[in-house]
Predict the structure.
Amino acid sequence: MLSRKSLPVVLLFLCAGLIVAFRSLGLAGGNPPTKEERILHNIGEMLSQIHYSPKKIDDNFSKDIFQKYLAEKIDPLKNIFLKSDIDALRKFETRLDDEILGGNVEFVPAVGVVYKSRIEEAESMYKIYLSKPFDFTVVESVSFNPEQISFPTSLKEKEEAWRKRMKYLTLERYADLLEIRNKNKSKDGQPPKTDAQLEEEARGRVLKIMDRSFSRLKIRFDKDDAFNDYVNTITETMDPHTAFFPPPEKRYFDEQMSGRFFGIGASLVRDEEGNIKIATLITGSPAWKSGQVNAGDIILKVGQGNEEPVDLTGFMVEDAVKIIRGKKGAEVRLYLRKSDGSLKTVSLIRDEIVQDETFARSTIINDSKGKIGYIYLPEFYADFEDPKGARCSEDVRKEIIRLKEQKVNGIIMDLRNNGGGSLYDVVQMVGLFIEEGPIVQVKDRDGKPQIYRDRDKTVLYDGPLGVMVNEFSASASEIFAAAIQDYNRGVIIGSTTTYGKGTVQRNIGLDKTMGILQPNSDLGTIKLTLQKFYRINGGSTQLKGVSSDVLLPDVFEYSPLREKNNPDALPWDEIQKADYTSWRYGLDLKPIIQASKDRVSNNESFSVIKNNAEWLSKQNDKVYTLNLNKYKEEQQQIRNTVKQIDSLNKLPQELDVTALNEDLRKMENDTAKLDRFKSWVKNLRSDIYLDEAVRVVNDMIVQDNLVYNNKR
């Protein structure tokens, strides 16, 4: 049953559904709209009618789309189009809003005509430059920063851009080959290759990569890729998290959220030459059972049943995965090149694959002051299609129970790199650590804030709690951290702030009429920003994120990776504080924070990370040398810095991290999976950030024992 608070939003959905239905049926007169026009018009209506804070779709919006589509989506390196091409296409600059709101879709096809001729031109250019040796003694440089380069004004400028790009790509590989040769000079007894031979080999490698990439680029306007990029340029200009998903993309999104999919059970990688290669097989999967698929095999094509196979030339791994996955029980044919060079076609039947390695997991950290339970949560996953499917809140609940059975004295929740997920589950998860009360406030574009509460008075775990975060902890991770911080329920440990995503999205199918609340459709799905969430203290996490209580120097601190670095991000604001009571066993964090601050300031590793973070962040913005000697010097400097950070990241004395026996028993029949799990545990033992988190929680345990134990 719908609550009264939900009614205005639902009515808005239904009204928008009627508008979209009339658009889709072409009732305004004229020819029936094409599939592309239906998608674009429906999205335009939804953005205007439903988006939390829609920008006006007018000529200014059109100009923005025009610029972003050409300069960011289609030709980000500005080496395909000429400036004259952009000027010729400028007649569409103020007409894109008309296309979005009901006009004919003409811009993308017009861009495609120009693009196809220019891509053939660029192909001939890179082939010419890769056909003859480069002179790496010349002192010259190149910039790949899109903000520092413009579309070439002539063919000569374009040729120069391609010459420098091919020279740099060759230089990277040539320098690597020289280093490998010099290390292996006396090992195999064979005469070493000359510099000229290695330079030629480097150009050959680049040529293979470029050929594979261009085979994909040349057909992007014949398929839906370019149009989908156009639609996503529109949605992302509204805000960074509104997005268009064609059906395969939506299926992939759901699979990532649920942790299960129907496929063959092979993990893929892209090798240096751009091939899609099988990295590992999941024990018991269709690929593993067949006995015909092996790690190292290259997938040339993928066929679906009786359909024409798709050539994977130029595909990225993610795109190849979307083709291989599909419906349970359906046939998929792999056209493989085996490691011995032979060709083989293998027919497999898709089956359910559970990605349980992406689910919550835990270990025990033994310390002289006691036991600390460690829970790693990579995302706030939920299987929305299956009520009995995996849910992160339920899995974390089980991990806490297991850790309590081990009689831990404190718990660390690791939300580093956790990009968020299910809003429902984060509310349930916070409820495991507090008695009851508001967790987060959610507001739509017209309504009053709605408070999401924990209504369960029981507390599963009431002991010392540390929450680890970094700049990639976003959305649901920020809700969790903010609630724990506002209740003074635990301490937040990590980078200065988290990512800063304070918006809520919902998936809406595009070809629904009265059933617009359905998340999928044959036309595709829009992930639409409908709400913003706010802390119970009234502040938004949008842009500002959650500030850590205990600050740890981070190598990415100065990199422009957070929400605040996106010019299309929604602004920060605040609303009225919710009515809540702080955790009655809350600790005095001041001495705990100060103790950590003292340790960090005296820690050589953290000092090096802090000093090098700003320097490393600037390396991707600089001008790159095309001189071999200078390149070697710069790479050595970067390598030394990274090596120094990596070496200091490893503790001189490892943490005593042990896996639960139950977990090891579950994996004893899958040696590959067991090895990956053991490798994960091993990495935890040398994690400098986890080490400090353990020290912080130990300080909490000491204070908790001294002051509050007798009150529970």
Notes: The radius of gyration is 28 Å. The longest strand covers residues 525-534. Confidence is low (pLDDT under 50) at residues 1-29. Residues 359-711 form a domain with the 2-enoyl-CoA Hydratase; Chain A, domain 1 fold (CATH 3.90.226.10).
